[in-house]
Fold each of these.
Amino acid sequence: MGNKQPADDAEIDAADWPPTDETVLAKLNKGRNCPLTLNEENEPHSLWDDFGGPEARFSSKKGALWTRVGYTGSKNRWPTYQKISGHTEAVQVKYDGKNLTYEMLLDEFFDEANYYSFSYSTQYKSGIWWHGEEQQQAVLKKIEQIKQTKKGAYANVKCTIEPLGTFYRAEEYHQRYYAKLKH
């Protein structure tokens, strides 16, 4: 399935995803609020903390249909890497729900992320931005499980856990960054 990603706009040709033309990217991001949703085909999405490593890890999972990196968590509009404006680097994951479930993504996040201490930086903090009641309940259930099974500092969930606001797609050079380094 690779990293094929549907276009967020009818003007964008999804067959050539990801777009490499800055004009196409500008069209894609113009006025778009890219929240996680269950679309008409009941295809779920999810979102996690910082770029490169997590994006590479999630995109390699069986059942990951595509990933994209971007910025979320601030009311400031149109962030860039050079002007992140209070946003956090984030990874959006579209998954099939059969080979890869939301609960499996939560397990991966809590196994790998620094969820138990506050971050020194808004840009690089760990967080989960959930979408919808079902995802929120799954996160709360996972947090309760952590509190019951972990000890000491690891029993405390201090990372950002909140509903997703606006998600801004990052610049093309950040997309599939680790995969590009291999070439």
Note: Residues 1-45 have pLDDT under 50 and may be disordered.
Amino acid sequence: TVGLRESAQTFRGPLDFVEMLKRRPDSLEFLYLNPVMKGTNEYNPYNLRVVSHGQVNPQDFYTISAAGVTHILGGVAEFTPLAAWQREYRLYDSLVKIPLFAKYRLWKSYSTWRKNVRGKKVNACKTQLEKNLFILNPSLRPALLAVREISHHMSMMRLYNILDGVTYSLADFCDPKSDPMHLAEEKLVE
């Protein structure tokens, strides 16, 4: 155990220890490891810190030896042979370097923020329309539709009956019998 304590101080992480094991495959040494930044946005299952036995988190820690890596989580142990663990580590490292995965957290945060902002804007517009759009008010709707119908009929009516190429005298122009404006006025009074 003296050799273990001395060597444990020199290892910065599990990969340094694995390099030493390659030089000394018959070694019986092992290290305790704690996960770093567990539960944060930057969690990496292979980001492990070498610790002494007294610093081990009994609910979540790893041990590494020439045989492999053991993960103890809540009293349940999961063993992975060293070669398989190294392969998984390399694959994970390659995977997180792909831009899609490297930028995923930033993209997800932006996407969620954008969705929330758009939702708030839509709700604000909806509220304003409900307050100010009189056609949605049940008591004002019939009157508004009636005014719209009258306006439409008025826009279709001719207010002056003037033919091209005809010169009118003042008396002919003001004759109430042929004046469409009087007819429109009568309809409006109705």
Note: The longest strand covers residues 30-35.
Amino acid sequence: MDLSRNKLTGELPPQWSELTALADLIISDNDLTGELPQGWSKLSSMTFFEARDNRLSGIIPDGFVSKRIEVLDLCNNRLEGFLPELNTPLIKTLQLCNNSFQGAFPEHWSSLVLLQILQVDNNNLLGTLPDALSNLMVGQDGLQGV
């Protein structure tokens, strides 16, 4: 479902958690606000989620990301907290740039063996990438020790 560039406003509807067969959701380039709904962890068929260029805030809730997700793009929002632990063995693209994430890279990310694109620039991250991800092209703005 592509709802990008529609001037949508307000918060993400928690009721969408009932759309359990939803595989692709693109809500980029709107004016959406608020937090990512915890109940969306029920979207177990989700393989593609793009919500860049909104005003989403708060943290990425535990279990928010489907195990089937291949593309997750949350760039250019107001998300914060630590980078999420991801139990997403199929993820190929992870874009979290231009937010306010802090801290180190989760060591668990070294198990993301299919990951090809990692974009985390313009956050407040520390430390180094797990060795298994060192071959990726990563924006390094705001990284220390990389």
Note: Residues 140-146 have pLDDT under 50 and may be disordered.
